[in-house]
Amino acid sequence: MSAVATAPGPAPSKSFREVWLIAIGHSLTHWYPATFYILLPLIGRELGLSYSEIGFVMTCQYVVGAISNIPGGMIVDTVGRKGLLMAVSLFWIGVPYFLMSFTHSYWVLLLCVALVGIGNNLWHPTAIPMLAQRFPERKGLALSFHSMGGNVGDALAPLAVGALLALLSWRSIVVVNVIPGLVMALLIFYFLGTLRMGSKKRKQTPNPASDDSEGQSVKEYFRGLSELARNRDLLLLSIGSGFRSMTQNGLLTFLPVFLAYEMGYSPFWVGVCMFVLQAAGFAAAPVAGAMSDRMGRRRIIMNSMLMTAVVLAGMAFAGRSLAFVLMIATLGFFLYAIRPVLQALTLECTPKKMGGTSIGLLFGVQAIGSSIGPAIGGALADKYGLISVFYFLAFTIVLANMFVFFMPSRNLGEAPARAAAD
Predict the structure, then answer these.
(1) Whole-angstrom Cα distance, residue 345 to residue 350?
(2) How many independent structural domains does the chain possess?
């Protein structure tokens, strides 16, 4: 009785504060890469890079990120989710961009983005399972707020950097840019550390609803890992998400290049277009999250992917016209709407104690897709022109939808609302 009586009390307040804190931190993990997408055309021109070399810069970052995701998930599930881990992630992302300001070498540039790939992929296996456990019946909505934080960073960074480039060089911008990450890393370390200590002092009775899954033995972990290896739902969902990430990162790499090189846009207007893309995703996240809690995650994912393919094909057909630019907002709405829904469905398909590893695996496969997309896109652009990249991306999102389509309909993604009501 005491456990039931205390469950509704402190948990919602604590969860709400952590949601906003983690969402702000998440915005900065996206701020830095979004900044780099705007600076990459300038860096490419200064260093004399080809389209293939520009694409390989992003490939390098995401290959290293893919490798780091699984060890990150293992640390989370065995040691526990720590404010320190998220603070280290932010620090690790910001500092390599600072080091870029001193380089004139392509190989040093690759080393810096590789370090970013490690830091950026330590964040998600920690933050996403934590939020899902706080809101077990509304995972879609809770994770949509986390996703919105990422969209805020993705949206504001191109706009801010596009304006700053009128006053500063790209080298000066990456120096100034490290400051917000360091400040937020300190805030996360302080506040999440305080919350963890407080929760341990208050935890006198077991409360499954507010369980933080602080850790498990290595033997328990590897038992759970063997179960994940046989999880068909997780495999299909991860591969489908990998193709979706191939679409997303190929777009983020070559949309600014297309706008700058083919349409002649200034850095400011490139930033505005990228802001519109991300702002549409910001608006879509809570809508898709709430709808997935009621209508089922699989349905929302498939419909959004289908519309993304249609819009990308339309952009390729439109070419260098105003219609191409006008489609950017529609593309952002459908492309980013499903990000939190995919994460929620992943956690529903896997054991709670393995949440960090499950998310690590999901993001690891996504990082592989993200690394392949720019490389293939760069090769296509060099041979057939930049517009060919958008046809290729439309094809990859269709493939992503096919893997989700073949997931068994019995999984939780079909009826999360009914499961919550039970």
Answers:
(1) 9
(2) 1
Euclidean distance between CA atoms 37 and 165, whole angstroms: 13
CATH number where 356 lies? 1.20.1250.20
Distance CA 396, CA 400 (A): 6
Q: What is the pLDDT of residues 307-343, one digit of tens each?
A: 888 888 888 888 777 888 888 888 888 888 888 888 8
Which 3 state secondary structure label does DSSP give 48?
coil
Give per-residue pLDDT as tens, 170-227. Answer: 899 888 888 888 888 888 888 775 444 444 444 444 444 344 445 566 777 788 788 8
- With b for 16 or more beta-carbon neighbours within 10 A and e for fewer, the 238-259 pattern comes to bbbbbbbbbbbbbbbbbbbbbb
Residue 370 CA to residue 364 CA, distance in Å, equals 10
Two structure tokens written together for 358: 């499950």
Q: 3-state DSSP call for residue 94?
A: helix
Q: What is the pTM of this model?
A: 0.70
Question: What is the structure's pLDDT at 82?
Answer: 63
Range of 27's domain? 10-200+215-421
285 to each of 196, 271, 280, 335, how far by Cα in Å? 28, 21, 9, 10
Q: What is the DSSP string of 7-21?
A: TTTHHHHHHHHHHHH
